[in-house]
Records
---
Amino acid sequence: TNRVIFPVLGFCRSFVKAFAEVPEPLCGAWRLADDMDYSFAACTNTGDLWRASWHDLSYVDGDSRRICLELWFGRDLPRGAPVPALTQAGDGDSFPVMFGCQAKDLVLESHRVPWVFFFDMFALKVRLRCLRPAFGPASAAWGTTPLNSSLVLPPSNFFRFDSRSPIERQVDACANLLGGKRCLGDPCFVVGDIRNIS
């Protein structure tokens, strides 16, 4: 599936702020008119998180650092280039997010470890990995255009006039489609009521 899984809102950005020795990354979104959804969004590129120094990390923090780096949209960006953003809520009016992974690229790994309180018992340690971020230069979506980007990412996760936003989202071509439910967040792919169609 092309669905995007985001970390709990603000977790990775707060983690970077607390532990990475780079300035706090900030995100912003802009509207073309007051009555419109946000049209554009980007986040500041305060440094390469993969090469940044990190301080005071515990074992658990180290795992959080790894998954946040794997989810980060800024991987492989030129120095100083803004980090691209997606919208999480799917309504075009939510805060921009620069961490996420497509469901198909998430991998769950698990292995047994001895249980510290009982010699003959084991606990299961589960680790989450993201093979590539959902957006940005390291993503599958980065090589798309407005004509084919909806085949890779749900249109509702793009800000309306992002350079890769699907053309049907940019022109609002499917706004008047009547349907009980959108499939995969795509406004042009809806479940309709055909009982009364003659």
---
Amino acid sequence: AKWDSLVVSDSEENNGDSDDEDTDDDVDNATTLAASEGAAAATICARKQQALGPAEMLQRITRVEKLGEEILTDRQQAVELDRRRNTNREALAALRRMEKQGHSVSGQKHWACMASTFIRHPHARTRQLIETDQQRLDAEIEQLHKGIKEKTNELCTLDPSITGGSDVHRSFMQLKGVAGSTIAAEMLGAGHAYGGRPGM
């Protein structure tokens, strides 16, 4: 018959299926790789734990649990102190507004809550107490954040399965803040080295 030699080509459909299959393969490969890395980290951790004796194993587990509880407690305490610090900021801002608006603040007194007790102080004394309390809160919060990083680093070292075998927690331990003046000085130095201002 006339249509006996007619062949229908499905090359486009096959190509589309091929692309989808390639994409699926890539996703499967990535998933398999991530799963294998996690399994490898868990295996290494398990082998290290098997090498420990019962007493050492119990001591490590106890230390891990204690570190976890301390980290959660320190984070909660840091949140509470930060809330108090924000309240102090609002109080200081209100006192500064009174000074900028030209009010005679020399004879004014304000109620301040210190250690769960309300005490009325003169304007200057109130501001001094709040600023002193603010400095103390800044130091305590900074100390808590430093302790949290150190405890988290120790926790991840004792139990590498927490980070999937990654050493990212050690990188965070090496992070240091840089002052804006230091960055500006480096940018100015770079600008002078190139004979012009930075960004030109």
---
Amino acid sequence: HQSSAMSNKSLNTPEFEEGENEQSEGSVRVVSGSGFRYVVPFPWRLHQMLEEIEKAGDSSIVSWLPDGMRFQVHNPTKFVEKVIPKFFKQKSYKSFQRQLHLYGFHRETDGAYRGSYFHESFVRSNRQLALEISRIKAPKRRRTPPQKTAGGKQKTEVGQSRLSALERFQPLDPKQLPRGPIRNIKPA
């Protein structure tokens, strides 16, 4: 679309480059394969994005709030169309929100700043502080082999033995059968 290409140029910023080989402002060195590479962390890019959007006059899409401690996406549709492709690897608003959560950002749920995002180390006046924000690592899911009982049967999650098909179909105790005539039973 020509119109979206024109509006993207109004942001006046280079597109996101994955796997940068040289150190640039805000980049950190990370181990990668058999060597290392420099990457610009998400919080740094987020701060840079907010500054660039403000300079481009596109604060109606996303902006810092007056306190300088929070930012808010005002127009999610335009944010996905114009901003996300320029600054982030993500392609959707939900993915962007997931990144915010993984880096410990919180969303205001009520009050004057409802819908805005904040992090104690993410402030308008100090982009360098954003480098202190680290990604929260999800706990590794450990797959443990099923445990066996003394009789060799698998235990269920609640610690009860699983019964084999033959064990499940034992004859019923006559005392457990219902009394009286049985109705509405069709012959097999």
